[in-house]
Amino acid sequence: MSDEMIIDLYSDRKQGLPFLEKSLSYNTLVKKRHLAEDEGKSDFYYFNDQEILAYYLLHQTNLDKEKGKADRTITAYKQELMTFISHLIEYQESIGIQFKEINDGSLFKSLRSSHMEKYQNWLSEKYPYIIGRNSSYSPATIARKNAIIKHFLRFLYQVGYIENDVTRFMKATTVDRDERPNRDLGVYEVMDLLDFFSETVDQPVIFGIIHLLVTTGMRNEELCKAKVGDIEYDRDRESYYLHITGKGNKKRIVPLHDKVVQSVNRLRSARGMPTIDKAEPDMPLVVTSTGKAYSPSYLSQYFSSVMKRVHLPSLEGKTVTPHSFRHAFAILSYREGVDVYTVMRSLGHEKIETTEIYLPKEMEKDEHAALRWKNTAISKYL
Question: What mean pLDDT, rounded, does the chain reach?
Fold first, then answer.
């Protein structure tokens, strides 16, 4: 991301939001901060709410721009925070708060800790029903929303834009293992899906995508960004490899088995595209019916629509998404005797604790005390 990066924040004058411009340049915001410093004022003295929000979204903490926030991360944070702002204005009565005065024309400076305490409870207990859901949000969804909001508000406090830490009475929203969505697919579930799309209905597109995901452990967005030119043929090893750009623009290389390459070529042929040995390097590796690259959201929607038509006993009660196959890669690797550290590196995780989140049931089954019993009186009944 360059210093000229521009972000759009939509104004809503009807509801009194102090967002009067549509787009802001990060470079312009930095100059405004420098001006305040030169004049001996606080860093964000000349900023309004829209500008501090834009600065928060665009600011990078690493000098290497390739290691900064990805565009998708910025978009996700922007959407979550803009939703938070609109909630505060639109649902004041339901939340149980009231902004009698907007301090210095700033919604953020008018927030109090009691507002955030009430908002957190409202988001968890009331809002889902207001918008027509039949249940409250999952613990994982609540945890994600609260983490983004808390981080932003603490940033405002740390840089001096607001005077008080309004998050101090907000509750923790950590997610226990048992509360995480069940994305576990074992070898038999994966085989059932591959067999179904290969032998039963012969759908080379969805088969190729699943085959690629489960054998590489790629993320949804990594698959969407992959290009034909990212594939390398290693003559010494007589094998194909895919160069992946992951989160934070971190690079890794994953092997492509011969049958996976064949599946990708079948997928491309079904889409009317040349095979990888004949395609231009900058062409998307996996393409839609129009020959374009999938977006992460569109690939998820495509998966959802296809899986609704799949009725396999082994998948009863399970929600299958592109990310399910990243979990499956970890589980299959672990069952094949691969150590967790190697699985971590193959998935592109930075911490081994993240990888272990993918494997709690597998590790619990293998590490139970009853499996260590030897030479005991009860062994005849085992």
Answer: 84
Cα angle for residues 6, 7, 12 (degrees, 5° grid): 140
Domain ranges of the chain: 6-179, 187-366
Q: With contact defined as beta carbons under 8 Å apart, do 134 and 120 qualify?
A: no
371's tokens = 């499996």
Q: From 176, 122, 170, select the one nearest 147 (Cα to Cα).
A: 170
pLDDT digits (tens, 9 = 90+) for 278-309: 999 999 999 999 989 999 889 999 998 998 88
Fold of 187-366: hpI Integrase; Chain A (1.10.443)
What's the CA gap between 13 and 355, in Å, rounded?
45
pLDDT at position 292: 92
**195: helix, strand or coil:** helix
Local confidence band at 334 (pLDDT 50, 70, 90 cut-offs): confident
Element counts in the chain: helices (H) and strands (E) = 16, 5
